[in-house]
Amino acid sequence: xxxxxxxxxxxxxxxxxAVREMLTGGPLDVLTGDYLAELTMLILGRDRLKDAGRGYxxxxxxxxxxxxxxxxxxxxxxxxxxDKSGFTTIADPYLDKLAKDLGPHAEKIKNLIRSIN
Length: 117
Prior knowledge:
By secondary structure, the protein is mainly alpha-helical. It has helices spanning about 20-25, 40-50, 60-75, 85-100, 105-115, and strands at about 5, 30-35, 75-80. A three-stranded parallel β-sheet has the order 1-2-3, with helices on one face. Strand 1, helix 1 (about 20-25) and strand 2 (about 30-35) form a beta-alpha-beta unit.
């Protein structure tokens, strides 16, 4: 068995288009993203000092919003190491929208994510 893995992020400054490029660039089973690299942690720490509700990779939410439907359609699993502390509060409204747009499977995912908090 072959597992095809692509990575769309190595730090907070990577190309925004990388997620879509990986999803449309050929066969893919798993898409990963690293949002806790040293440079990213420095940027997120500075953001958190300015506003305690920040401190997460905001581009990740936009990338997910624009590309999650495509990932689901192609059966690609998305795996990231996004810092949970600031992310879950901000992501909560997106969960409702994504669940509504993507249907029953997304509703199950939304409920699972909320149960982790």
